[in-house]
Amino acid sequence: MADVEVAIGSKDIMKMLGWSPSKFYRRRQELMDMGVIFYRMALKPPRPNIYAFPSRIHKYVAVKARNGEIL
After folding, report:
1. Which residues contact 52 (CB under 8 A, 6 or more apart)?
2. Are 51 and 37 in contact (CB under 8 A)?
3. pTM
4. Which residues are within 8 A (CB) of 41 and not within 5 positions of it... i.e. 6 or more apart?
5. What confidence score (pLDDT) does residue 44 get?
6. Which helix (H) or strand (E) holds 41?
7. Is 50 exposed, middle or buried (0-12, 13-18, 19+ CB in 10 A)?
8. One digit per residue, pLDDT tens: the chain, 71 residues?
9. Starting at the edge strand that comes first in sequence, how are the strands of the sheet with 8-9 ordered?
10. Can you tell me the distance from the alpha carbon of 11 to that of 52, in angstroms, rounded to the nearest whole number?
């Protein structure tokens, strides 16, 4: 069976990073520029929602740690 990674929503992203909603939305553009998060039309009625793959979040944290930045 092939390994499949499922995209997680913004609440799960915040929980993974240990961030509050305000910190998440302050850093949203940085995350988009680095290719960590993306928008996808979902729900009813369709509206853009933020999603990310857990592996990209782990890479983002590794890059920040390598640069000595504190999340």
Report:
1. 7, 8, 13, 31, 36, 37, 38
2. yes
3. 0.85
4. 47, 48, 49
5. 85
6. strand 37-42
7. buried
8. 568 889 999 999 999 999 999 999 999 999 999 999 999 998 789 999 999 999 999 999 999 999 998 88
9. 8-9, 47-52, 37-42
10. 11
Burial class from Cβ neighbours inside 10 Å (0-12, 13-18, 19+) for residue 39 reads exposed
Nearest CA to 55 out of 41, 71, 35 is that of: 35
Q: Which residue has the tokens 């729900």?
A: 43
Six-digit token pair at 32?
């988009």
> Residue 61's pLDDT is what?
95
Round to whole Å and give the CA distance between 64 and 44. Answer: 36
- In sequence order, the 6+-apart residues with CB closer than 8 A to the CB of 70 are 64
15: left (phi over 0), alpha (psi -120 to 50) or beta: alpha
